[in-house]
Design goal:
Protoporphyrinogen oxidase, FAD/NAD-bd_sf, 14 helices, alpha/beta, 426 residues, Zeta_carotene_desat/Oxidored, globular, seven-stranded mixed sheet, 20 strands, FAD/NAD(P)-binding domain
Length: 426
């Protein structure tokens, strides 16, 4: 190991806390600076019935090896359980089962040829081991050719337009390949929520002499010559570090570092995320996950978390997420949350005609400005290196996990790659 280093990390999400955990275990002095007052980044939690619950719906897949390994490493392996929840699509005013391959082939808009093309194109994407061949292709163009226009119009185009809006035609096929190839039908969840993982990381860091400080919104990052990296926060505090790892979104880093407008970190674009957590007195949908494939709906997906985790965990409340990815200037991002919920209720009633506003006992609303990178064929060339113009500053952000776009497991894996490259872990 190198000499003991004074390491700073900006961001207490999966990447930042994993990097801190790795570094502190081999004797480095570590300080994590987090702007919010909670752990987890986009996996941060609120409480329902005294139990942590993610602000934005979260689960992991059987293929998420890095996250599974970290959970086991922290002694939480027995708390990780895998489930086989159900999936549906809302389209044409009806709920369509979409859980099993057999369900998928029976989609009411598919004829026999469409079913074969859907199955064949999906199987191909599962079989292809590397998605490099799709780097220069757009998803919808590929799908229209191989899955067919009818299948694309019924399944894929509504999903991409619901998620990316006017940018749907630009989305990379490599991104879609990664979503299909790497995912499994089984979903994993930690008893008591993923908050337990982040709390265990924080406790482990602090037990070994590290620090996790909240309310530390970074205003500037500077380095003069070979000197330390200096971080100044909005509360007036200042820190000097031998080495700094920044895990915030690219634009936030670029602004703090004073990088020129032509810098690569400015060029990749992000959508914001909004998410309601509705605490209901009864179940609202018959599925865990419901994709909304109706173009006039103002939200992308409805997820009934308590179709996977028993409502008794949350004091009998049924947990319904209503989620969106939108431009930060979009009315769904800027509207008062109470007014926004009133707008959404009639659409929830279209899904379930019995739904009443009175079913909602309590609700929570969260939004994040930089939640979903827009992965286009040009995206890969714009991904910045981990190295930055400042020799002591390393960037490790979700825009660098191409062709994936985010995810706890990919964040953990990236953290470990970065700490290994910097000689900060065992």
């Amino acid at each position: 190991m190198e000499l003991r280093m004074n390491l700073g990390i900006i961001g207490a999400g999966a990447t930042g806390l994993t990097a801190a955990w790795d570094a502190v275990r081999v004797g480095h002095q570590v300080t994590v600076l987090e702007a919010a007052d909670e752990l987890g980044g986009l996996a941060a939690s609120l409480e329902v019935g005294g139990v942590p619950l993610e602000r934005y719906y979260h689960h992991i897949f059987r293929s998420d090896k890095a996250m599974i390994a970290l959970i086991e490493e922290l002694g939480l392996g027995d708390a990780l359980r895998f489930h086989k929840p159900t999936t549906g699509i809302y389209r044409g005013g009806q709920l369509i089962d979409f859980t099993t391959p057999f369900d998928m082939l029976r989609h009411p808009e598919f004829g026999p040829v469409d079913a074969v093309r859907f199955a064949g194109s999906s199987a191909l994407l599962k079989a292809v081991r590397k998605g490099d061949r799709y780097n220069d292709l757009t998803a919808l163009a590929w799908l229209r050719r191989w899955a067919g226009k009818k299948v694309t119009a019924a399944i894929w185009e509504p999903l991409l337009r619901g998620k990316f809006g006017d940018r749907a035609e630009q989305v990379s096929m490599a991104w879609l390949w990664a979503r299909i190839h790497c995912r499994t039908f089984e979903l994993g969840y930690v008893d008591g929520g993923f908050e337990r993982v982040y709390a265990a990381l924080k406790d482990g860091i602090e037990e070994r002499g590290g620090k996790v400080e909240f309310g530390k919104a970074v205003e500037s990052i500077r380095q003069d010559g070979a000197d330390d990296a200096v971080v100044t926060c909005a509360d007036g505090s200042s820190y000097g570090f031998d080495r700094l790892i920044v895990t915030t979104p690219q634009p936030a880093f670029a602004k703090a570092a004073g990088l020129p407008d032509d810098s690569a970190v400015w060029k990749n674009q992000y959508l914001g995320a909004t998410c309601f957590v509705l605490e209901l007195d009864r179940s609202a949908i018959p599925y865990y996950w419901l994709n909304i494939n109706e173009p006039d709906f103002p939200f992308l997906a409805v997820v009934e978390h308590t179709k996977m985790i028993d409502p008794s965990v949350y004091g009998g409340r049924h947990i319904l997420y209503v989620g969106n990815y939108v431009e930060r200037e979009d009315w769904r991002f800027t509207t008062d949350p109470g007014e926004l919920l009133d707008t959404f209720v009639p659409y929830l009633r279209r899904i379930n005609p019995a739904f009443e506003r009175s079913w909602i006992q309590t609700w929570h609303f969260s939004k994040a400005g930089f939640a979903q990178p827009v992965v286009t064929p040009e995206y890969r060339a714009l991904i910045p290196a981990h190295e930055t113009p400042m020799s002591r500053v390393t960037l490790a952000t979700m825009a660098q996990i191409y062709p994936q776009d985010r995810g706890q497991s990919y964040s953990v894996a990236m953290a470990r790659e970065v700490t290994a490259a910097l000689g900060l872990n065992a």
